[in-house]
Design goal:
998 residues; alpha+beta; elongated; 6-stranded mixed beta barrel; 23 strands; 14% strand; single chain
Length: 998
C-alpha cells in the first residue's frame, strides 16, 4: 500500500509531464482519426444516398440512340441486375438570355431517382421537378409555369423509322422515334439530382473549373406525356455492387467486370446491328419512296394515256367524216344513182398511211387540236423526265446511304464519368491523403517528447528506484510506476483525442463539405477498430520510450542508483577552438554555449521537436500557397490567350463570323477541341470506350492547323518539363518547345498522374471514340486541366483507318473528312472585367456552345476544402509546437534546479535568472526554426505530390511570407511558454535545492 501511495504521490508531483504527454497524444490521435473520420463519414453517407436513390453503376450511351434490341441485349449480360431505358431531350428557354436544360424522364425501374427536397414529385404530363440551382437562378417557385422550346436533334443521333421486336430482332411492326416532352410546364417540386451533389447555395458555387454539365439545368418529368420509343441512354445496376462502398476498389472491380463484358461482345455486336438497322430503315425508306413514285408515275401515265386515247378518238372521228364525205362526192358524179346511194351509205376503208396522213393534216389545220397534241406530248415528256430523275435520285441515295450513316458507337461509362461524383471523390481522397501523412510527424514528435519527459522523470527518482530495488522490489514492479503513468496519460489523452477526432474535426470538415456538396443523411459515426488502433499506436510509441528510459537507469546496481549521478565530465566545444570568436564572448555567453552543445540529447530533442513543429506549419502553408497560386499560374502565365470559344461543328463558321464582327479580338488561332481520354499504352482494351478507368485520364484534345503550328506558342506558354524530386520539376526555357508531326504534347497534370514522359507511348481517344497509339514528343508545363496538343497531320495519321491501331471504330478512308475547327483561342482588348462580360455575352449567342474567359477563371478559381483543411492542420501544428516547447522548457528547468539555486545564491536577480534560462531556449528554438523551414518545404513537396488529383498538378510554391509566418509563430509560442516557465523559476528555493542528497 505504501508503494502505491508513493506512486500516486509521485504522479501528482509530475502533473505537468502528465499533461504534456496527454496533450501530445490528444493532438496526435485527433489528427490521425479526425481527418479519416470526416472523410469516412462523408463517404458512407454519400454511399447510402447513392444506394437509396439507385444511382447507376454503368451508363451506356450511343451515337444513334438505343433501341429495344439494345436494351434486351444489355439485360442478358452476366452480372447485370437491372437495366433502365431512359429518354431525355434538350430544350431551351428564356431566363435573362437563352438557357438550356435537359428534360429527363424519371425512370420507373428505381435507377437514378431524384431526391425530393420540397413539394412533390411530378405525376402527370406537363409537371416537372427542378433543382435548387434553377430555383435560385430563376426566382421561380413551386407552382410557377415555364414554356420551353425543344432543340433539334444532335447531328450524330439518328431519328429513323427503324423497327425492332421486343426480342431485339429486326421486324416491321414498330417505329423508333426520338423522345419528345411537353413544352408547357408547371413546377411541382424541388429535387436533388443524385448525379450532381454540388451545393448551389454554398460558398463554392463559383468553382466551375470542374463542371462537366452540357446544359445549364436538369428538369425531371414523369413518363406521362413523353412520346417516342428511342432511348437516349441505358442505366444499369450491377449485382453485388450495392454491397460494396462506391469509393472502394472492390466496388470498381465489381463494376469493371460487367463493363468489360459489355465492351467485349455486346458492344461490338450491337453497334453493327444498330447500324444495320439504320441501313435497313434507310433502304426501306428508299424502297417505299420508289414504290410511291412508281404508283404516282403509273397514275400519271394512265391519265396521259386516257387523254391521248380520247384525243385520238376525236381525231379519228374527223378523219372518218372527211373520208365518208369524199367517198359520197365521188359517187354523186357517177351515172347510177342507186349505186351512189349505196356507196354513200358505206364508210370507205382507208389504209393506215392514208389515215395517219389525214390525222396530221387535220391536226395541223386545227389550232385547238395542235395545242391539245402539244400538251399531251409535253406532259409525256415531263413524266419521262421525272421518272428518270427520280430513279437517278433513288439510285444516288442508295449509293450514298452507307456513307451517310456513320459507324454507330457506344460509350460505356461508370460513375467516374459523372462530374459531381468524381469531384467529390477527388476532394475527399486528397484530404484523406493528408490525414494519412501528418499523423506520422505527430507520432515522431510524441515519441521524442515522451522519451525526454520520462527519462527526466526516471532520473529524478534515481535514488528512490535504488531504494525500492534494494528493499527487494522487482525491477518490473518499480518500472510499472512509470509505465502506468505514461499509459494513463496516453489513455486519457487518446480518449479526449477520439472525442475530438470523431466529433470535433469531422464536424468541422463536414461543415466545409456541406458548403460544397449536398449530402442528405449525413451523420457522425465512430469506428471502434480504427479508434482503438489509433490510441494503441501512440501507447506503443510512448511506452517504448518509457521502457527505454527505465532500462537505461535500472540496469545499474542498487548501490549505484543510491549514489548521486556523477556530473558530466568537462569537455571543450567546437566554438572554444575558434579563439578569435570565443575570446570576444562574455562569461554568460560562454556558459550558454557550453550548456547548449555539451548536453547533446537536450540539443537534439529541443531542436528536433521545434523543427518538426515548424515543418508542419510550413507544410500547411506550402499547400495553401500552392493551391492559391494554381489559378493565377494557369490562366495568367500558361494560357496566354484571353478567351476560348467552342461551338458545334455545324455552327463553327457562324461562331467565327460572330467573334470577328464584334471587333474585340486582336489575334486568334482556330483549333479543334474534343473531349477524349489518355491512357498508358497497353493499359486496357483499346475499344473500351470508357473514360476514367484505371490508368487513364480525361483530357481535352486540341488539334492545331498545320499552317499555324508556330502560332500555338503565342496562345499557350510551351515549356518542357521533366520529373523532379519531392514535388519539384525541371522546367525548360519558354518557347523551346514546338509542336510537330512526330508526336503529341501532353499536359504535365495528366503526365504526372499516369507517369508519362517524353518518348512514352500512350493510347489516345478522340471525340468520336476512335482510339490509337500515339508517341509523346514532350510534356508541357500545365497545372489545371489536361490538354493534349496534336498537329492536324498527326491527328489524321492517328485516327485514319490506315494508321489507327484500332480499326473497329475508325473511319474508312472514303469517309475521312477535313477537320472542322470548332473552337477559337483569342486575345482580347480591354480590361479583365470587360473580357469577362464579353465571354458571358457570347454564351447567349446560338452559335456558341461555351465561352471561357481566362481572367474570370483566374479570379474565381477556388479550392475551399483544401484551404479549410490546411487551416486545421496549421492550428494543430501550432498546438503541438506549444506543447513541445512547454514540455522541453519544464524538463530543462527540472534538470537544472541546483544550477538555478546557485545563481540565486550568487546574487542573480529573478529577471537575470529568467534571461539566463530563456536565452538558451530561444537559441535552441531559433536553431529548430532554421532547420524546420527547409524541412517543411521538403515535407510539403512530398505531400503535394501525394495529392495527385485528376486534372490538377500541384507545383509546390512557398511564399517568403509563409516562412516568416512559420518562424514568427514558433517564436511566439516560445515566448508564450516563457510566461509559464518564469514563475517556476521564481519559486525555486536556494536552500532546499542546494541540500546534499547524501
Amino acid at each position: 500500500m505504501a508503494f502505491v501511495k508513493d506512486m500516486l504521490r509521485m504522479w501528482a508531483h509530475s502533473w505537468k509531464r502528465f499533461i504534456s504527454i496527454a496533450m501530445i497524444t490528444l493532438l496526435g490521435v485527433a489528427v490521425l482519426t479526425g481527418i479519416y473520420a470526416g472523410c469516412r463519414d462523408a463517404f458512407r453517407s454519400t454511399d447510402r444516398f447513392f444506394d437509396a436513390q439507385g444511382l447507376h453503376d454503368v451508363q451506356v450511351l450511343s451515337t444513334a440512340g438505343l433501341s429495344n434490341g439494345d436494351i434486351a441485349a444489355l439485360r442478358k449480360v452476366n452480372g447485370v441486375a437491372k437495366v433502365q431505358a431512359e429518354r431525355s431531350q434538350e430544350v431551351t428557354f428564356d431566363l435573362d438570355g437563352r438557357k438550356s436544360a435537359t428534360m429527363q424522364e424519371i425512370g420507373t425501374d428505381g435507377i437514378d431517382q431524384p431526391y425530393l427536397q420540397e413539394g412533390r414529385m411530378p405525376k402527370k404530363a406537363g409537371e416537372i421537378a427542378v433543382t435548387r440551382k434553377f430555383i435560385r437562378d430563376s426566382g421561380k417557385r413551386i407552382g410557377s409555369r415555364l414554356t420551353v422550346t425543344p432543340e433539334s436533334a444532335s447531328s450524330d443521333t439518328f431519328d429513323t423509322n427503324d423497327t425492332n421486336g421486343a426480342d431485339g430482332t429486326n421486324e416491321t411492326n414498330g417505329t423508333d422515334e426520338a423522345p419528345s416532352f411537353p413544352t408547357k410546364l408547371t413546377i411541382v417540386g424541388v429535387v436533388l439530382d443524385p448525379q450532381n451533389l454540388s451545393n448551389p447555395d454554398g460558398y463554392s458555387a463559383m468553382t466551375s473549373f470542374r463542371s462537366t454539365a452540357t446544359t445549364d439545368y436538369t428538369f425531371f418529368a414523369p413518363s406521362d406525356g413523353v412520346t417516342g420509343t428511342l432511348c437516349t441512354s441505358a442505366t444499369l445496376l450491377v449485382k453485388g455492387a450495392a454491397a460494396e462502398s462506391t469509393f472502394d476498389e472492390s466496388y470498381e472491380n465489381t463494376v469493371k467486370q460487367v463493363t468489360d463484358r459489355i465492351d467485349g461482345t455486346v458492344k461490338t455486336d450491337r453497334q453493327k446491328a444498330r447500324r444495320q438497322e439504320l441501313l435497313d430503315a434507310g433502304n426501306r425508306k428508299i424502297a417505299d419512296a420508289r414504290a410511291e413514285a412508281d404508283k404516282k408515275f403509273a397514275d400519271a401515265q394512265s391519265q396521259i394515256d386516257a387523254n391521248r386515247q380520247q384525243f385520238n378518238q376525236q381525231v379519228d372521228q374527223i378523219v372518218s367524216m372527211q373520208a365518208g364525205a369524199a367517198a359520197a362526192g365521188a359517187a354523186a358524179n357517177g351515172a347510177n344513182a342507186g349505186a351512189a346511194a349505196a356507196a354513200g351509205a358505206t364508210t370507205p376503208q382507208l389504209d393506215e398511211t392514208t389515215r395517219e396522213t389525214m390525222r396530221e393534216t387535220i391536226i395541223a389545220a386545227s389550232p385547238e387540236l395542235t395545242q391539245a397534241k402539244q400538251q399531251l406530248d409535253q406532259a409525256q415528256s415531263q413524266l419521262n423526265e421525272q421518272k428518270a430523275s427520280t430513279e437517278q435520285t433513288l439510285k444516288t441515295k442508295e449509293n450514298e446511304l452507307k456513307t451517310s450513316i456513320p459507324q454507330v458507337r457506344w460509350y460505356v461509362q461508370d460513375r467516374q464519368s459523372l462530374g459531381g461524383f468524381s469531384a467529390l471523390k477527388s476532394d475527399l481522397d486528397s484530404i484523406q491523403s493528408l490525414g494519412n501523412a501528418f499523423p506520422i510527424v505527430f507520432l515522431l514528435v510524441a515519441v521524442m517528447m515522451s522519451l525526454t519527459a520520462m527519462a527526466r522523470m526516471v532520473e529524478e527518482d534515481r535514488s528512490l528506484i535504488g531504494t525500492y530495488v534494494g528493499l527487494g522490489y522487482g525491477r518490473l514492479a518499480v518500472a510499472s510506476r512509470y509505465l502506468l503513468f505514461a499509459l494513463l496519460a496516453c489513455l486519457i489523452g487518446g480518449g479526449l483525442g477520439l472525442i475530438a477526432g470523431f466529433l470535433g474535426i469531422p464536424a468541422f470538415l463536414l461543415v466545409v463539405l456541406q458548403g460544397m456538396y449536398v449530402m442528405p443523411g449525413l451523420r457522425l459515426e465512430y469506428d471502434w477498430l480504427y479508434g482503438s488502433l489509433g490510441i494503441a499506436l501512440f501507447v506503443v510509441g510512448v511506452l517504448a520510450a518509457t521502457i527505454y528510459a527505465c532500462v537505461q537507469e535500472m540496469r545499474q546496481t542498487p548501490a549505484s542508483l543510491l549514489r548521486p549521478k556523477a556530473p558530466r565530465a568537462g569537455s571543450r566545444i567546437l566554438l572554444e577552438r575558434i579563439r578569435p570568436v570565443w575570446n570576444r564572448i562574455g562569461f554568460l555567453g560562454k556558459v550558454t554555449a557550453r550548456n547548449i552543445f555539451r548536453f547533446k540529447s537536450r540539443l537534439i530533442m529541443t531542436v528536433g521537436g521545434v523543427a518538426g513543429c515548424t515543418a508542419l506549419i510550413v507544410c500547411g502553408l506550402a499547400i495553401n500557397d500552392t493551391v492559391a497560386d494554381l489559378g493565377i499560374k494557369q490562366y495568367r502565365d500558361i494560357y496566354q490567350y484571353d478567351l476560348m470559344v467552342v461551338s458545334d461543328d455545324s455552327d463553327a463558321s457562324a461562331m467565327r463570323t460572330k467573334v470577328a464582327s464584334d471587333g474585340r479580338v486582336t489575334s486568334s488561332l482556330d483549333v479543334r477541341i474534343e473531349s477524349g481520354d489518355l491512357a498508358i499504352s497497353g493499359g486496357g482494351d483499346g475499344d473500351s470506350g470508357k473514360a476514367g478507368s484505371s490508368g487513364s485520364e480525361s483530357i481535352q484534345l486540341v488539334a492545331v492547323p498545320e499552317k499555324h503550328l508556330s502560332d500555338l506558342g503565342e496562345m499557350v506558354t510551351l515549356q518542357p518539363v521533366s520529373s523532379g524530386m519531392l514535388g519539384t520539376s525541371g522546367v525548360g526555357k519558354t518557347g523551346s518547345l514546338k509542336l510537330d508531326d512526330d508526336g503529341v504534347i501532353v499536359a504535365q497534370s495528366a503526365a504526372s498522374a499516369l507517369g508519362v514522359k517524353a518518348g512514352s507511348k500512350v493510347r489516345l481517344t478522340n471525340g468520336d471514340g476512335v482510339r490509337a497509339t500515339a508517341k509523346v514528343s514532350a510534356v508541357n508545363r500545365n497545372l489545371i486541366g489536361s490538354d493534349v496538343y496534336v498537329s492536324e497531320t498527326y491527328y489524321a495519321k492517328l485516327f485514319d483507318s490506315k494508321d489507327a491501331k484500332n480499326t473497329k471504330n475508325s473511319k474508312s478512308s472514303e469517309d475521312s473528312e477535313a477537320l472542322t475547327w470548332n473552337a477559337m483561342l483569342a486575345k482580347l482588348s480591354g480590361s479583365d472585367t470587360s473580357q469577362t462580360d464579353y465571354a458571358e455575352s457570347l454564351e447567349e449567342d446560338s452559335s456558341v456552345m461555351k465561352a471561357v474567359s481566362c481572367a474570370h477563371m483566374a479570379d474565381s478559381f477556388k479550392f475551399d476544402l483544401m484551404g479549410a483543411v490546411v487551416a486545421l492542420i496549421v492550428a494543430l501544428a501550432g498546438g503541438l509546437a506549444l506543447v513541445v516547447l512547454f514540455t522541453l522548457a519544464n524538463t530543462n528547468v527540472s534538470e537544472r534546479v541546483r544550477e538555478m539555486a546557485t545563481l540565486k545564491v550568487l546574487g542573480f536577480f529573478d529577471r537575470e535568472v529568467h534571461h539566463y534560462v530563456n536565452r538558451e531556449m530561444m537559441i535552441l528554438t531559433v536553431m529548430g526554426v532554421i532547420l524546420g523551414l527547409p524541412l517543411g518545404r521538403l515535407v510539403g513537396g512530398m505531400l503535394t505530390m501525394a495529392l495527385n488529383m485528376p486534372s490538377l498538378y500541384f507545383e509546390v510554391e512557398v511564399k517568403p511570407l509563409s516562412y516568416v509566418i512559420a518562424a514568427v509563430a514558433t517564436m511566439a509560442f516560445a515566448l508564450l511558454v516563457q510566461l509559464f516557465v518564469n514563475p517556476v523559476l521564481d519559486r525555486i528555493d536556494p536552500i532546499s535545492s542546494l541540500k546534499s542528497v547524501e
